[in-house]
Write a structure and sequence with these properties.
This protein has 26 helices and 17 strands. The protein is α/β, with parallel strands linked by helices. The chain folds into 4 domains: 150 residues, Orthogonal Bundle (DNA polymerase, domain 1); 90 residues, Beta Polymerase, domain 2; 105 residues, DNA polymerase, thumb domain (Beta Polymerase, domain 3); 240 residues, TIM Barrel (Alpha-Beta Barrel), CATH 3.20.20.140. The strands form 4 sheets. The chain has a 7-stranded parallel sheet. Helix 14 runs antiparallel to helix 15, helix 22 packs parallel to helix 23 and helix 24 crosses helix 25. The structure holds 2'-deoxyguanosine-5'-triphosphate, calcium ion (2 copies) and zinc ion (ZN).
Length: 605
């Protein structure tokens, strides 16, 4: 939960932004900005304050206090709502881009209809800004760089960028003489869809050479903190990296601690306290003064807040004998638990399941036997049919579907003839790939009323059909829900592609009653895709977890538009694991004979 003060700070900041973007008085905007910071930094909780009490906060005037008081009592700030209604949220985001500013954001919105950061980036890449007043030759480049920075500082480093950066750094640190172990931890190890920063953990007797190596990497742009136990840097891509070095014998406890999540750690620590133990990043210890009561333990379980300093204090002072700390397995075992896979460590019931010995056997990338959603240069892919198929074969797949776009996505210029010619070509190539079954498919477009591109007779000619929403993103909830349910009910639709259509940090999800769609998918035997493109990761983990409870089956696909994208399932697997999926839940982890039965939708299974 965010602190109420932080919520109020955000609202006031937004109000200030909206004042300046709508051409309001700059002085007023600055006053609200100042008030926002004042409330955020105010040590006491604003929850109990009335307008008069609020005015005691330095920097908060009468009209601000009234607006905040209204929010505290009614949950709404009317003045803010009025301004919000006038400006799309994407335009507000645009003005936050370094080197943009409110005036230019508003001008682009009014003159060119650019209404989000994503559209802004697209417009610059398509060279639509050159010639627009106020945008000089190099401003496009500068703005793109600003967008990149903003995404990263906003906690939006995508999983692929973070993984690549982390692997590069882990390899560099592991190569330093004296380093005995090195791995990344944190949200990246838990495979969260975006990460705030990268946490690297290493073991060595002397940390100094490792810390020095990190700060001297050519792609490190800035050193934020330099110290013997922790060094933080920012890379040229704007990603923060924390390196911590611990003694070899503490590896397990430290890895567990810095992998998180915080909620998972706190629950483990509470369990430890109940059995008279103390868990910190230094290990699992007997409590020296058990009779004294453990106040920090109580604090953790109720507040969910504690600091490293606290842990350090207790580690150096109150601890008794060390029980274990060398490996994660040992620490979990000493708490009476089997090892828990990092993607599960979100306090979503995994500790309870572990206690009951009911942890799921998670699907892995190696379990995937094929890919059911890929494109070629017949539509918007970059590589030809043969090249895509050869690359897929090298991955050792048992089956592989080519699913180019269908005609209703007009810009792709698909025709019946082209589709049939591709099918023929694919059947010919099948002779060369005896180990990999080639499937001819398509990615259909789900129309506003739930219809798809071709009549049933034509659809029946495909081995597999993915159907996705590519238009009418703004339709209302009832419409979106209806169109997706109809698509599930189509006997020729096997997989719903990228269900919510979101693009992380660029486009939000469509408004849809997911439960109703999950129910329909389960009832009709339609799989839902876990689209593995790191820009999408759609459906997202918590929704996949929810869908699983309806009995929905999933297809973990690359949606590849180039040969390199065929490796994307490594990210989709992260989502699947975070959603507790096993091979039983994933149709492309099944042998071909079982998948084949699934693809005959109306037949009994
Ligand atoms: P991020 O970086 O925002 O994507 O998310 P995390 O989970 O990587 O968080 P980060 O980098 O702040 O810290 C890494 C891990 O260290 C976190 O998952 C749990 C652990 N940790 C950090 N601070 C605390 C703390 O105050 N209490 C506890 N129990 N654990 C902490
Ligand atoms: Ca982190
Ligand atoms: Ca961190
Ligand atoms: Zn698509």
């Amino acid at each position: 939960m965010t602190r109420l003060n932080d919520q109020v700070q955000e609202l006031l900041q937004e109000y200030a932004d909206l004042i300046s973007i709508t051409g309001g008085d700059a002085f007023r905007a600055r006053a609200y900005e100042k008030a926002a910071r004042a409330v955020g930094g105010y040590p006491e909780d604003v929850a109990g304050l009335d307008a008069k009490g609020l005015q005691q906060i330095p920097g908060v005037g009468k009209s601000t206090a009234e607006k905040v008081a209204q929010y505290l009592t009614t949950g709404r700030m009317e003045a803010l709502e009025t301004l919000r209604a006038a400006i799309p949220p994407g335009v507000r985001e645009m003005m936050a881009v370094p080197s943009m500013g409110p005036k230019r954001a508003l001008a682009l919105y009014q003159d060119l209809g650019i209404a989000s950061v994503g559209e802004l980036a697209d417009a610059i890449r398509a060279d639509r800004l050159s010639g627009v007043a106020g945008f000089g030759e190099r401003s496009g480049e500068k703005i793109l760089h600003g967008i990149e920075l903003m995404r990263q500082s906003g906690g939006l480093t995508l999983l692929d960028a973070a993984t690549e950066q982390a692997e590069q750094i882990v390899a560099a640190i592991a190569a330093v003489p004296g380093c005995t172990r090195c791995a990344y931890a944190g949200s990246l190890r838990r495979m969260r869809e975006t990460v705030g920063d990268i946490d690297v953990l290493a073991t060595a007797e002397d940390s100094a050479p490792l810390m020095a190596a990190l700060t001297e990497l050519p792609y490190v742009a800035e050193v934020i903190v330099r110290g013997p136990t922790k060094t933080s840097v920012r890379t040229a891509k704007g990603i923060q990296v924390d390196l911590r070095v611990v003694p070899e014998e503490d590896w397990g406890a430290a890895l567990l601690y810095f992998t998180g999540s915080k909620a998972h750690n706190i629950k483990l620590r509470t369990m430890a306290v109940r059995t008279g133990l103390k868990l910190s990043e230094y290990g699992l210890f007997e409590v020296a003064n058990a009779g004294n009561g453990d106040s920090s333990g109580n604090g953790e379980s109720t507040e969910g807040e504690e600091t490293t300093q606290e842990a350090e204090r207790s580690a150096s002072g109150a601890n008794g004998a060390k029980v274990v700390s060398a490996t994660e397995e040992e620490v979990y075992a000493a708490l009476g638990l089997p090892w828990i896979a990092p993607p599960l460590r979100e306090d979503r019931g995994e500790i309870e399941a572990a206690l009951r010995r009911e942890l799921p056997e998670l699907v892995t990338e190696a379990d995937l036997r094929g890919d059911l959603h890929t494109h070629t240069d017949l539509t918007d892919g970059l590589a030809g049919l043969e090249e895509m198929i050869d690359t897929a074969a090298a991955r050792g797949y048992a089956y592989y579907a080519v699913t180019d776009h269908a005609p209703d996505l007009v810009m792709q210029r698909m025709t019946d003839e082209k589709m049939l010619a591709q099918r023929e070509q694919l059947r010919e190539l099948a002779g060369r790939h005896r180990k990999m079954r080639l499937l001819h498919g398509t990615e259909l477009n789900i129309g506003p009323e739930g219809g798809v591109d071709w009549p049933a007779e034509f659809l029946a000619g495909f081995d597999v059909c993915v159907a996705s929403v590519h238009s009418h993103f703004g339709a209302d909830r009832a419409t979106q829900t209806r169109r997706l349910i109809r698509a599930c009910e189509n006997p020729h639709v096997h997989v719903i592609g990228h269900l919510t259509t979101r693009r992380i940090g660029r486009r939000g999800p469509i408004d849809v009653d997911l439960d109703a769609v999950f129910e329909a998918a389960a009832r009709t035997g339609t799989a839902i895709e876990v689209n593995s493109s790191p820009q999408r990761l759609d459906l997202r983990d918590e929704d996949v977890l929810r869908a699983k409870r309806y009995g929905v089956k999933f297809s973990i696909d690359s949606d590849a538009h180039a040969t390199g994208h065929l490796a994307y399932p490594r990210y989709g697997i992260g989502t699947a694991q975070r959603a507790w999926l096993t091979t039983e839940d994933v149709i492309n982890a099944w042998p071909w004979q079982r998948l084949k039965r699934f693809l005959r939708k109306d037949a009994l299974r």
